Amino acid sequence: MNKEFLKEILKKVKSGEIEVDKAADSLKDLPYKDLGYARVDHHRSIRNGFPEVIYCEGKSLDEIEGIVAEMLKHNNNILASRATKEVYQRIKEIAPDAVYHERPKMVFIEKNKLQKTKAKILVVSGGTSDMPVAEEAVVTAKALGTQVDSLYDVGVAGLHRLLGSLEKLDEADVIIVVAGMEGALASVVGGLVDKPVIAVPTSVGYGANFGGLSSLLTMINSCASGVGVVNIDNGFGAAYLASTIILQIEKARREG
Length: 256
Hints:
The protein starts with a helix and ends with a helix. α4 (about 60-70) runs parallel beside α5. It is globular. It has eleven helices and eleven strands. The chain has about 260 residues and is of the alpha/beta class. It has two domains: about 15-110, no CATH class; about 120-250, Rossmann fold, CATH 3.40.50.1970.
């Protein structure tokens, strides 16, 4: 259920194409559908612009299948995060068009083709080991209809690799920086650009990085201005935030 679907129903009621009772039936599951183990939020895309995303960890295969089946009834695009191959295989049984992104462990079902934004997100990673989180951000941004590019393995251990790609930084409207170890890359990027930087600490690193806490603390203590930080390994959250910023940029350009 999205705003365009809702507008279409209201237009048909106004023109007399459908009766009020029939229109009410198509809206009966708003604002949510109670499945007993989950309350599927069909109203979210109307409120926030994006459908609910399924976080798969901690859910059984039957529960995930039930949630997906309910969302499919409303013809929404569906994004499932932290999904194993086993989860993907179960989803594919009821949604043959489901696509699995193995590195970030995400499933995407595209029911409605989204027009890509002109404004762009750039996802930057410190090292190849950070790519699962970086790719979670990329897949999420694409699923939300945002134009996205990537720049991987440009960490501060070889700063010339980043400095050799300044054109990509300049072209982006929002930058997501994904880094583990000490997480210094976010502060470096923040000092080079005049746009929002969303930092994602990762759990990549040796023992004393405390599962990503070292990079988290570095990022939230960044000396560069304009750097915001999400939680450890939360590529999804960074991309969601970045996409909302991109949509506001697009809106301002349309109205300006």
